[in-house]
Design a protein that fits this description.
- Two copies of one chain form a homodimer.
- By secondary structure, chain A is an alpha/beta fold.
- Chain A folds into two domains: 68 residues, Orthogonal Bundle (Arc Repressor Mutant, subunit A); 116 residues, NAD(P)-binding Rossmann-like Domain (Rossmann fold).
- Helix content of chain A is 47%, strand content 18%.
- Chain A is built from eight helices and nine strands.
- In chain A, the strands form two sheets. The first copy, chain A, has a seven-stranded mixed sheet with strand order 5-6-4-3-7-8-9. A two-stranded antiparallel sheet of chain A has the order 1-2.
- The longest helix of chain A has 17 residues.
- At the A-B interface, helix 4, helix 5 and helix 8 of A face helix 4, helix 5 and helix 8 of B.
- The structure holds nicotinamide-adenine-dinucleotide (2 copies).
- One nicotinamide-adenine-dinucleotide sits at the interface of chains A and B.
Chain lengths: 205, 205
């Protein structure tokens, strides 16, 4: 579909697009900065369905995502798992074995016996470093697999550190007054309960 | 809502209802067998919204369930967890701490190091005894937390032993040709993926 010659020019376009702070860019400006003609830019982008608006140009952010995806360097959203117990460990290992748009870049725990142990290529770090790790590793998403008594305070720390979304397994409501953080609560009991209902219903028919 | 005098008569009705093989029973027949007048039966059942059909009577199975639930002896659906690794252990412990209509009555594994260990009040048993345990403990539901390579063969054994539904965490399709068993596949990566998508979308707005 996309010719090799076009693919080879994409990294040059990407470098310019990632460095600009502008929201939009014209094919003339992009071509000039990347070292190609504006016609070449328009022709290349048309191969993957990216079209600019006359006189205004292309939206930068979606273009970056598209090019990253084509080049396969689409770096997934960076994830921290908090609580390296049974559930946390099972989830970290599972993400390591499955392709997805996320990448676990930190696993933290409070227990000195657990800190320092390895889960695949990752080493469990100290939850005291939570804020530093979220900043340094640009973590946008967290998975909460701590006991119920620890969930609320850990969630507050994650929200204060700038995490945008939390997958919450602890059976308590978290961050009810922080609309800027997306919270998704998981309760596997509900799945079990639903199956139990079907099994019971089936018994009566 | 329901008067104590009515509650005290319910076990007598329940004994009759559980012994009958009929699908329906009239208030006259039920009153006679339990030792009360047909008017008393109708009055008692009206308190919890159970009404019969004139000349036909009450449906037995839903009535049994309602009375069991009122008396709190509603025995949940009996569950076996197969695979007592990280995920299995986390799930068994979680069901033990939370009220639900299910009751884990067996946890099995293949690893001699794991067999015999305790998870709360339960001891891990040998997966070789799967068929015997499903029969003896009237297990209707199974949770599959084994590695992907073991999932299909274990699922076949569960279906052959008479299990009615399986909550499957292994990332492989199981029992595709056994319509009599309800299979619910769980993939927590999808939840993570969905959150990642929201976080990424948010970045562009
Ligand atoms: N929603 C569901 O369907 C579901 C299923 C299973 C378990 N759970 C819940 O998930 C949680 C984890 O379960 P588990 O079986 O893995 O428990 P676990 O005890 O094995 O693991 C909990 C881990 O959290 C760590 N921890 C405690 N306080 C912490 C803190 N302040 N910061 C960082 N780490 C901390 C502990 O050291 C431990 O390693 C529990 O809340 C449990 O109720 C939910
Ligand atoms: N769907 C999801 O979202 C999700 C999330 C995490 C893990 N998983 C999956 O769940 C499964 C369990 O994960 P885990 O981290 O607990 O792995 P684990 O290795 O800790 O546990 C697997 C357990 O299964 C036992 N086992 C192996 N073969 C068996 C057999 N034939 N009969 C009975 N027991 C057997 C092992 O001895 C071990 O105790 C894996 O398939 C994993 O891919 C799925």
């Amino acid at each position: 579909r996309i010719p090799d010659t076009t693919i080879r020019r994409l990294p040059a376009y990407l470098r310019v697009l990632e460095l600009t702070h502008a929201e939009r860019i014209t094919s003339v400006a992009l071509g000039k900065a990347a070292g190609f003609s504006s016609e070449q830019v328009r022709k290349d982008f048309a191969y993957f369905g990216a079209f600019g608006t006359r006189g205004v140009g292309y939206e930068v952010a979606p273009l970056v995502r598209q090019i990253r995806r084509i080049l396969g360097i689409d770096r997934g959203v960076r994830v921290m798992v908090v609580g390296a117990g049974h559930l946390g460990t099972a989830l970290v290992r599972y993400t390591q074995n499955n392709r997805s748009d996320t990448e676990v870049v930190a696993v933290v725990d409070v227990d000195p016996q657990v800190i320092g142990t390895a889960i695949g290529p990752l080493r469990v770090e100290d939850v005291r470093d939570l804020e530093r790790l979220v900043k340094e590793r640009q973590i946008a998403l967290a998975v909460l697999t701590v006991p119920d008594y620890a969930a609320r305070s850990v969630a507050e720390r994650l929200a204060d550190a700038g995490v945008r979304a939390i997958l919450n397994f602890a059976p308590v409501a978290i961050l009810t007054d922080r609309p800027e953080v997306i919270v998704k609560n998981i309760d596997l009991m509900l799945e079990l309960q639903a199956l139990a209902y079907f099994v019971k219903e089936g018994r009566d028919t």
